[in-house]
Specification:
alpha+beta; Multidrug efflux transporter AcrB transmembrane fold; Alpha-Beta Plaits; 4-stranded antiparallel β-sheet; 16 strands; 53% helix
Length: 594
């Protein structure tokens, strides 16, 4: 069955195309209701990051003992294009950029193997190396500030780490909850050298005893009452006082308490980050969604959890400092509104030119029958309702009706030649079948390469290009099967009548005759337009992403190495005071890291 006689087949067998498109429409509606809404499509950049921490180490020490060795190990991994490294007090970060198109998961595995091979050459005091790939989904979707009138800073920090994080991580699609500001709980054991010397106790001996007594480890299995149960060895102290009461064996039957030679206190570690909102120190946290999860769904469910936490803890107050979800919701609503407005305007234009309400209705049906099943194809491709896919649907809102307009206009023209609606639909569809198919595949030929572009830009435009292709192919199917079939049974023939005659058409024909009689002039105008286009392409500035007018800004202040946290906070507070004086500023959050 070729493209010309498929219309005649659908006219003679109307039940099959009706059932087919009802099924596609229902599938599209179901897919639309289940599709995730995001700001940008999930992108995995070809970059692998290695982060290693060594608390208390100077930047120069970290550079020589860790950074340079990690760089040398990564450089041997196949596919690495570029390596960037930075070192600060207590931490180093090494980023390896790979060839675009490489398997990023395999790259992470190879980098991890390379780091494991030099693990024995790295200092003993380092924490476990963190190796991860860069993805757009890892960016926080929201930041919150937490205040509590009935908690100390230490208690509030533990509340965020334990209660808030645990509750929010239970939300489906939540990837991480990271705290900033506040302090970490720490039990300090300050030894008294004089008492230790008098009793003949060494620091290493005390450390060994504490390690043995603070145990939470597996103890195998035991058979109790006919069933096997796991056994754990627990030796943790419940608080600082209980830890101070621990007995230290000195030999010869002598024992002493830890509190006899040391001061044991339950406090917090040195504060290495501070966050201020409204001039008050607060604890902040950011949350990130998992890859493939919906920004809107994760954020709304997280806000519901936060509301429950506030009700359970009246003294705790959460303040939203920033979220990208409001922008995502605005983009979604504006894109859907643009699609609807475009469809309505296209219908109005069709009515103005055809001046037949039945023909206008048939043309209008083509828009939802083309757009709604497209959501099903997007779901099959794994796409989401993001900026790029919604932009594509908004762009083709008017294009979707093009094929149907060509079909219905030619059918109306044949009817005004005196034919019945049934015969006019068969003759008109057969007459312009090849032209309609060629027009649609010209659009496909333009946008399909956009959806198959390589590189990072290709990952963004994949959603855009393939959405356009899917929607215009659906519009072609509607124009070839549904439009002639409905026209054959819905239009009414009124006999021979004029078609396309009007004052505007007379003016157009006059211009057309002039252009055909002055071909050299028209060719010259075309060449000048081409030259001007090329010149503008050279002159116009080029950038990866267009400048966006967002409702938030970020100012980064970097101090010289060795600057204390208090001094950093003072400088940041001065900068924040200048920013807060601006009339456009609603809220300002300052965060200082040491």
């Amino acid at each position: 069955m070729n493209f010309n006689n498929i219309s005649a087949w659908s006219i003679r067998n109307p039940v099959v195309p009706i059932v087919l498109f009802i099924a596609l429409t229902l599938a599209g509606i179901m897919a639309f209701m289940n599709m995730d809404v995001q700001n940008d499509p999930d992108i995995e950049f070809p970059v692998v990051v290695v982060s290693i921490s060594q608390p208390g180490a100077a930047p120069s020490e970290i550079t020589t003992q860790i950074t340079q060795k990690v760089e040398s190990a990564i450089r041997s991994v196949q596919g690495v294009r570029n390596i960037d490294a930075s070192a600060s007090e207590g931490n180093t970060t090494v980023s390896a950029e790979f060839e675009i198109g490489d398997d990023i998961n395999a790259a992470v595995s190879e980098v991890k193997n390379a780091v494991d091979q030099i693990r024995s050459d790295l200092p003993d005091g380092i924490l476990e190396p963190q190796i991860f790939k860069v993805a757009t989904s890892s960016d926080p979707i929201a930041y919150f500030a937490v205040e509590a009138s009935d908690m100390t800073l230490e208690q509030l920090s533990w509340f965020v780490d334990d209660t808030v994080s645990r509750r929010l991580l239970a939300v489906e699609g939540m990837a991480s909850v990271s705290r900033n500001g506040g302090v970490n709980r720490e039990i300090r054991v300050v030894l008294d050298p004089a008492k230790m010397q008098s009793l003949g106790v060494t620091a290493a001996q005390v450390n060994g005893v504490l390690r043995q007594q603070n145990v939470n480890a597996a103890g195998g299995q035991s058979e109790i009452a006919g069933s096997r149960q796991s056994v754990r060895i627990l030796g943790n102290a419940t608080d600082a006082f209980a830890l101070g009461e621990k007995q230290i064996n000195l030999g010869g039957g002598r024992t002493i308490k830890l509190a006899d030679i040391a001061q044991v206190t339950d406090g917090f570690s040195e504060q290495r980050s501070m966050a201020f909102a409204g001039g008050k120190q607060v604890v902040t946290f950011g949350m990130s969604r998992a890859k493939g999860a919906s920004d809107v769904t994760v954020f709304d469910e997280a806000m519901a959890k936060i509301g429950e936490i506030e009700k359970e803890n009246p003294g705790v107050k959460f303040t939203t400092l920033f979220n990208s979800v409001d922008y995502t919701k605005g983009q979604y609503k504006s894109s859907m509104a643009a699609m609807i407005e475009g469809a309505l305007l296209a219908i109005v234009v069709v009515f103005l030119f055809l001046r037949d309400w039945r023909a206008t209705v048939i043309s209008a049906i083509a828009i939802p029958l083309s757009a709604i099943p497209t959501f099903w194809f997007l779901d099959l491709l794994g796409f989401t309702l993001n900026t790029m896919s919604l932009l594509a649907l908004g762009l083709v809102a008017g294009v979707l009706v093009d094929d149907a307009i060509v079909e219905i206009e030619n059918i109306v023209r044949h009817m005004r030649m005196g034919k019945s609606a049934y015969q006019a639909s068969i003759d008109a569809a057969d007459e312009i079948g090849l032209a309609v198919v060629a027009t649609t595949f010209s659009i496909v030929a333009v946008f399909l390469p956009v959806g198959l572009m390589p590189g990072v830009a290709g990952q963004f435009f994949k959603n855009f290009g393939l959405t356009v292709v899917a929607s215009v192919l659906m519009s072609l199917a509607v124009a070839r099967m549904i439009t002639p079939m409905i026209a054959a049974y819905f239009l009414k023939s009124h006999g021979i009548a004029e078609h396309g005659e009007s004052a505007w058409m007379d003016k157009y024909m006059k211009i057309l005759r002039w252009s055909l009689g002055h071909r050299r002039w028209m060719m010259g105008i075309g060449v000048l337009a081409l030259v001007a286009t090329v010149a503008l392409m050279v002159v116009l500035p080029k950038q990866f992403f267009p400048d966006g007018n967002m409702d938030f800004s970020r100012v980064r202040v970097e101090m010289v190495p060795g600057t204390t946290l208090d001094r950093t906070r003072q400088v940041v507070s001065e900068a924040a005071a200048i920013i807060e004086k601006q009339p456009e500023v609603k809220t300002a959050l300052t965060s200082s890291l040491h």
